[in-house]
Amino acid sequence: MIGAEPxxxxxxxxxPVWLLPVIALLLAGGFLYQQWTNSGQLxxxxxxxxxxxxxxxTQLRYQGVAIGVVQELELAEDGRKIAVLxxxxxxxxxxxxxxxxxxxxxxxxxxxxxxxLDTLVSGNYINLQPGRDNNPLxxxxxxxxxxxxxxxxxxxxxxxxSDSLGSVGIGAKIYFRGLEVGSVINTRLGEENQNVILxxxxxxxxxxxxxxxxxxxxxxxxxxxxxxxxxxxxAGSLTSILSGGIAFDSPKESDVAEKGQTFVLYKxxxxxxxxxxxxxxxxxxxxxxxxxxxxxxxxxxxxxPIRLTEQGRVVTALINPEQAFRVxxxxxxxxxTVSLSPTGLKHADRLLAGPAxxxxxVAGDRVNAMTLESQAQTTGIKISLQADDLAGLSEEAPVWxxxxxxxxxxxxxxxAAGNARVxxxxxxxxxxxxxxxxxxxxxxxxxxxxxxxxxxxxSPASAWLGGGVKLIQAPAGERIDRLYPSQELALxxxxxxxxxxxxxxxxxxxxxxxxxxxxxxxxxAGRVKALKADAKGVEIELEIDAVYAPLLKQQPQxxxxxAIDGKVRLDGVQVKVGNLATLxxxxxxxxxLGTGRSSHQLFDSKEQARTQVRTLTLTADNNPGLxxxxxxxxxxxxxxxxxxxxLDPALGQVSFKAELDKQxxxxxxQSGARFTLVQAKLGLGGVSHLDTLIKGVFIEASPGQGxxxxxxxxxxxxxxxxxxxxxxxxxxxxxxxSPLLFRKLVVGSVTQVALARDGSxxxxxxNVDKQYAHLVRANSRFWNVSGVKADIGLTGxxxxxxxxxxxxxxxxxxxxxxxxMGPTVKSGHSYPLYGKAEKxxxxxxxxxxx
Length: 850
Fold this sequence. Notes:
It is found in: Cell inner membrane. The protein is mainly beta. Helices cover 10% and strands 42% of the residues. The strands form 14 sheets. It has a 7-stranded mixed beta sheet with strand order 5-8-2-3-4-1-9, with no helix packed on it. Strands 10-13-12-11-17-14-18 form a 7-stranded mixed β-barrel. A 7-stranded mixed β-barrel has the order 19-23-21-20-27-24-28.
């Protein structure tokens, strides 16, 4: 364009394109700064050993949170320690300052402490406790062997001083009245190493127990001393014995101690001189300093140094503050020392330990003064017991209830009629035990053995020497003032029991005669009054003494006590010999064995009597030869026997009372069970069970399935299969036992042959064995094959004999047609019995599936 003016544009000195590299540079710088801040920092921790520390795995933790991880392990500069290099997260860097403590946490188990169990899953780790907030940052530290003193401790911290540490160490428990209230968190030497200082922590809820006048004493381990005044033994709890322990008191009148107060640790309670003091009126008894005061054999106090004043001796005792509540107006202090009594040496344990004072505690109001008695008072509730004899008893013998002495035996007397009486004195505090009380002799050792186990009852040692009386409360009824020979008799006892007559039966009375003793637990409880023989065996009449008569209600078992009991075993010969009376007269023993066996049968031994059985009754129209003792068997093994055979007037039958061993009984006392007589059979048809001619008949049992049942008929034939009735004009050689044949194979037998009531025909009952019952169908044919069938003519003849057995004993054969055999039949079905078979019957050859 001619005459146009040029346009002039000014270029900017910096193009916007340059903003892109600037932004990229800033992003890269931010990324580098973030990487630098998050990279963490390496610190060095010197450990005594590196066991359990793994590079890349072992974490550094604070308050349970991981703040770093171990990078590598190397030898420290001094060559004696292991330097652990750990990288700490940058956010946790302020925690790593001077004064910080590091230690390795690993599983630890001891008798008093189990810790670090979480490391079983996560592995060992290094724990951190930061230093003070104003401390500078630090990069190198020396690790501790364990947590620093007071780590995680919550509560009040205080200090104890002692001449020596003894058996108390870090972790030892602090007890108040047996309750754990704190622990020792640190032990260290005091100034100039002249004493030991223990740092304790008391749980917050128990801080108020620490008073200005509180005293602490050592209860660690077992402490003992021996002197002329006796043997002194002090022991704390099992934990304190193993790891140490400290106890303290808390005087009520004292103010709460200030924080940080230091106390003295005494060697024991006596040195601490803590407890409640009481004054004792000792009279002329030779009481001395240090004599212990015992409650149920446990020391609860000691006699203080004895002071002399113008009024005479002043005796005080220091009582353990935890047991001071037992010092009441009703409690008594009794002097105990070695003495001779009718039972022998009394308090023999005091011969070595020296005299002691026994506290008989009875609840009541607290007192601060008591009188020391020279011997236990006999005051209390007086009871007079009737006794059969006084042998084995002595005055001052104890009266026991559940192992606790509640009284003692008083005078033993005989009245004008010669009746023995025992006077008892029972402490007033136990009056409530007398409402349903029964009393029996405290035998030194009583063993009760049964199928349920063995129960052993022993009396205290004093009863072994001088006898004693035990008290037991009956479940119901009132108190009976009679001294019984045993606990069982005491529970069963009645006021006016009389001797009781009891009858036993036995196959024979060998070893037993008139006057033979009847024993219960070795005590003579009666005697044999009469013997009488009859057709069933021997009837033995017993007279059981009145005190033992209640035992008969428990249906006990009786057995003969052998004069000489001998057993031959692989390891030798064992022989037991009874006393002279048993050797001369024999004896009978009885006890309740819980077997369910008859209480009117005399067994030959205790082993036979204790066999557990169950009873059943078998019935039959007559006795086929069974007697008492006839066995009941299953597959040739004896499982029971007949115990009694009698006529049942109501049923007009013979009843056989039998017993089955309990371990077998359940299967046979059910519906469907069968009991079959097995006896020898001699006949033209064969011979079976000849052994019964020598051993006697027996009963074969078959188990059942169904409801429980205890009464069964006695079957005199084999197991029933399919029972049929055949009708014939005459017997024609058929008799009971004649075989039933199918293809000349015996598949059953004739069980009964009888004339019909109207006399029109003969009814023959047959039994088809169960496994062949399916061969009989509605159209089956039965014919007589007894004897010999002959057909003789001018042109010749034939003679037919089915089997040798049918020739001798008669027999019946049957067959079923191949076609139209008909349905199966049930027991009771009847068929005609033909004289002979038709020709086509013999040609039938059926295939019949069960």
